[in-house]
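Researcher: We're teaching a course module on how sequence relates to structure. For the next exercise, students receive a sequence and then see the predicted structure as tokens, so they can try to spot secondary structure elements on their own. Here is the exercise chain.
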Amino acid sequence: MALKVPAVAFTFVVHTLGVTALALVLVWTIHFRGGLAWEATNKNLIFNLHPVLMLLGIIIMGGEAIVSHKSLPFNKETKKVIHLVLHTLALALGIIGIYLVFKNHNESGIANLYSLHSWIGIGVIVLYGIQWIYGFLTFFYPGGSPTLKSESIPWHVVFGIIVYLLAVGNASLGFLEKLTFLENSGLDKFGAEAFLVNFTAIITVLFGIFVILSVISEAPAPVEDDNIHSSIYKD
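Model: And here is the predicted structure for the students to work with:
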């Protein structure tokens, strides 16, 4: 059942929250944590790329890919291409973001995959990849039969939402984990940086909430013979 609210109303909030979250994480990593670098003597600068890329990729671009099917007043093929491109960029940035954590840990002599955040993170990127591959093969190339597409869409949507919710939850867990490490190392628990990190996590959660609200809201009027991807969200 769709909410009797136009999807575009929620997606405007999604866009605003996404820009805000990205700005906040850049302020944190550049202003408070010293900057971003692929190679550096200070290995923390390598790590700093991780939250930036994961937030920009899996959370923001992944969320925008989800809402694109409901908020954009384009025809079927145009929306499918936008959906695919955004998810492709999201997955690529997510893979790079995870690689940088391993790079940081290996060059710093820190153990890998010891935390719940890391375990869920690996699970999310694997599931995201499976979702992308199945979606590409079924809906793009070589493409499944009309029956297969029709039967796959509800599962594709539900699985995608589950993976996305796991990603948003794990992002919040990551902010908490890093902030806890910093506070245990002497960071003021009530200082500006601590408040910034917590606020960024809250904005990230709100972003995810409004992405889901856009999915269960009313789609705009279809253009031409708009596709089943739009109709699946209706009653």
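Model: If you want an answer key for the exercise: The beta strands are 3-6, 217-218. The helical segments are 7-32, 44-47, 49-71, 76-108, 116-139, 146-184, 192-215, 228-231.
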